Structure to design on (251 residues):
């Protein structure tokens, strides 16, 4: 049986990497998915590939006005919002002294402020429909110290704390809020990060070597966890951090 039959979901960053895998899995589970992405062309192309139950929407999640438009589109088009996945995010490779203020602001704004704005504008609409489910994508960088990830770690740690605070605030509204902390996932973002190093091949090898199970996490594994959290099977899972990291935080 399809676990998300007749559900309406929004996935930010839904046209690539983890977000695309989540969009695909949710559709397979019976949901209609608003594929929200800053890349208009990619969102349109990937939605066509995903089929009739994918609906592209172009959004910059750092803009309150654009996020409000996304939520209104979803609610007005389908009459409800059942699931929100806050997946859109960016990273930067640098220590605190080596992080310039512009990079700091950009990473915090996209990752943390973007998640806040999406929740801010989605929750009132979910309350009108007597509940819903929000899944925030954080990172193991919120749980352990990773080298040269200062701004990214700060943003993802903020998402984790925001998830827990909001989960308590809105459990009485029938809204379950949880987060997923992936390890190093094999996505286009990893390609971009490794290219920023003097020796990209060595950087990728180091990422592989730090994975106890000997490989990068697959986007589909994050999608599988998302499908569980979005389903009725996770009815008592509230304010949780679900780690999918191949054993990195177990060391």
């Amino acid at each position: 049986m399809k676990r998300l039959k007749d559900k309406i979901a929004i996935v930010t960053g839904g046209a690539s990497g983890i977000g695309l895998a989540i969009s695909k899995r949710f559709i397979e589970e019976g949901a209609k998915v608003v594929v929200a992405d800053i890349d208009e062309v990619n969102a349109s192309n990937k939605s066509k590939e995903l089929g009739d139950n994918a609906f592209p929407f172009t959004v910059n999640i750092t803009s309150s006005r654009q996020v409000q438009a996304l939520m209104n589109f979803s609610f007005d088009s389908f009459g409800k919002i059942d699931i929100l996945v806050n997946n859109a995010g960016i990273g930067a490779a640098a220590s605190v002294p080596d992080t310039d203020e512009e990079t700091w602001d950009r990473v915090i704004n996209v990752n943390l402020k973007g998640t806040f704005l999406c929740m801010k504008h989605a929750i009132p609409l979910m309350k009108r429909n007597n509940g819903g489910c929000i899944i925030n994508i954080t990172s193991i960088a919120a749980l352990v110290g990773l080298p040269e990830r200062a701004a990214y770690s700060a943003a993802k740690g903020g998402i984790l704390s925001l998830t827990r605070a909001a989960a308590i605030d809105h459990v009485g509204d029938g809204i379950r809020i949880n987060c997923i902390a992936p390890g190093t996932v094999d996505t286009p973002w990893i390609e971009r990060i490794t290219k920023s190093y003097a020796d990209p091949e060595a950087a990728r090898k180091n990422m592989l070597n730090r994975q106890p199970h000997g490989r990068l996490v697959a986007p589909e594994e994050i999608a599988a966890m998302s499908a569980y959290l979005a389903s009725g099977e996770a009815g008592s899972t509230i304010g949780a951090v679900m780690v999918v990291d191949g054993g990195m935080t177990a060391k």
